[in-house]
Design goal:
By secondary structure, the chain is of the alpha/beta class. It is built from ten helices and ten strands. Helix 3 links the parallel strand 5 and strand 6.
């Protein structure tokens, strides 16, 4: 599988296995993903499935060095102590002594906190310390918009390696993507298929038909062709396999524009600058 080189020199597999909204049977699902050849598993404290994923990773017998494991700091742990405790618990649940990638799950935002910049800066400083210690190989953020990235970079000693954002046809957050690229921050796409909503979009289905692929595969290729790390999620064994092993193809420039400007049908409705959780 192709690897993307991050700004700290480490590599991340360009396709990972997403586990958001997967709690029932997640151990079995992740085992299927590992057997299908996924090496990059994306989880988070708030998903409530780290322990089951840890069991699946252990049972797989795959050498830890071959795996790429990401987890995230939830909003109630945005502090020096919170980060430390969160990571200790995640390591225990995931049955590992280091993380490949640790993200701030959501930025403290201007709607909720007057001192949102300071909260994010304190969280990031604690993550920088874990990075320097080697417990975490790479650190990044998730759902950070331009204003959150700019504020963080005012005090950050380590530039985030990735920003994991909602990204799919019809919702590509161009301002955030452009700013991240200028700063050498790789974009990761969560909900690359619009949580399944895009599978019913008639225009997208018509474009997929032209290439002889499923709408889901078209969405994944769209992300890859946009230079974005993609995290498809499925609990269907056949789809799990197909999302990783499809034959690569090139979407034409005109179809890439059509997909970027698709009528928005897959958006989650979650605006990081306005969420109240």
């Amino acid at each position: 599988m192709k690897q993307i080189i991050l700004n700290n020199g480490t590599e991340i597999p360009e396709i990972g296995f997403g586990t958001w909204q997967t709690t029932e049977g997640v151990q079995k699902t992740v085992k299927m993903a590992l057997e299908a050849g996924y090496k990059h598993i994306d989880t988070a404290d708030i998903y409530g499935n780290e322990a089951e994923i840890g069991e699946a990773l252990e049972e797989s017998g795959i050498d830890r060095k071959e795996l790429y494991i990401t987890t995230k700091i939830w909003n109630n742990n945005r502090s020096a102590l919170g980060v430390q405790q969160s990571v200790e618990q995640s390591l225990k649940k995931l049955k590992t002594d280091y993380l490949d990638l640790l993200l701030i799950h959501w930025p403290a935002n201007e709607i909720q906190f007057e001192n949102w910049k300071e909260i994010n800066a304190e969280t990031w400083k604690a993550m920088e310390e874990l990075y320097q210690s080697g417990v975490v190989k790479t650190i990044g953020v998730s759902n950070f918009l331009v204003q959150h990235l700019k504020a963080l970079l005012e005090t950050a000693e380590v530039v985030p390696a990735v920003d994991q954002i909602e990204f799919h046809p019809g919702y590509t957050q161009p301002e955030t993507v452009q700013f991240a690229e200028e700063k050498g921050i790789v974009i990761e796409a969560w909900s690359p298929i619009g949580s399944g909503r895009l599978l019913k979009d008639e225009e997208l289905k018509a474009i997929a038909h032209q290439y002889g692929v499923s709408p889901a595969i078209l969405c994944i290729q769209f992300c890859l062709q946009s230079g974005v790390v993609v995290l498809p999620k499925s609990e269907n064994p056949e789809n799990i396999k197909n999302n990783l092993h499809f034959e690569r193809f090139k979407i034409s420039d005109s179809d890439m524009i059509a997909l970027r400007t698709l009528k928005e049908t897959g958006f989650s409705g979650l605006n990081p600058g306005k969420v109240d959780f």
